[in-house]
């Protein structure tokens, strides 16, 4: 495993955000909206490519929160949101890239 993309600790706070500690001691922290806006699922990618916000959608309850989160294999995090959206699986590598680059733009390209 690459220590830069191998988290040794993942903390999900349903009403706050997601914090990961990587094996090289790098800490990456994101608030809920950042994580939601970067959702890597096909639908959200499509919305971003059309210049639309992936959240909030017309039916989205406010405020945003996480209903459930679980590991997806050894490489990512599956997140279920309070608007029922749960298609996105977030690779740990993506969180690391967002942190290194200082912003979230989603996994386009
Ligand atoms: Zn999505």
Tell me about this structure.
The protein is of the alpha+beta class. The chain has one domain (7-101): NE0471 N-terminal domain-like. It has helices at 32-37, 42-49, 92-101, and strands spanning 7-13, 17-22, 27-31, 66-72, 76-81, 89-91. It has a 3-stranded antiparallel beta sheet with strand order 1-2-3. A 3-stranded antiparallel beta sheet has the order 4-5-6. The two termini are 23 Å apart. The mean pLDDT is 91. The protein binds zinc ion. Residues 39, 41, 43-44, 54, 85, 87-88 line the site of zinc ion. Zinc ion binds at residues 39, 41, 43-44, 54, 85, 87-88.
Structural class estimated from helices and strands: alpha+beta
Q: What string gives the helices and strands in order?
A: EEEHHEEEH
Q: Proportion of β residues?
A: 25-35%
Described by the principal axes of the CA atoms, the overall outline is globular
Name the poorly predicted regions: none
Question: What is the residue-averaged pLDDT?
Answer: 91
CATH fold description:
NE0471 N-terminal domain-like
The end-to-end distance, rounded to whole angstroms, is 23 Å
Total helices: the number is: 3
Name of the top-level CATH class: Alpha Beta
């Amino acid at each position: 495993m690459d220590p830069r993309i191998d988290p040794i600790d993942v903390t999900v706070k349903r009403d706050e955000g997601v914090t990961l500690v990587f094996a090289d001691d790098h800490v990456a922290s994101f608030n809920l909206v950042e994580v939601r806006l970067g959702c890597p699922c096909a639908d959200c990618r499509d919305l971003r490519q059309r210049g639309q916000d992936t959240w909030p959608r017309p039916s989205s309850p406010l405020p945003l929160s996480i209903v459930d989160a679980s590991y997806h294999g050894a490489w990512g995090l599956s997140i279920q949101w309070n608007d029922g959206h749960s298609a996105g699986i977030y690779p740990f590598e993506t969180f690391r890239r967002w942190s290194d680059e200082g912003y979230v733009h989603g996994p386009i390209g």
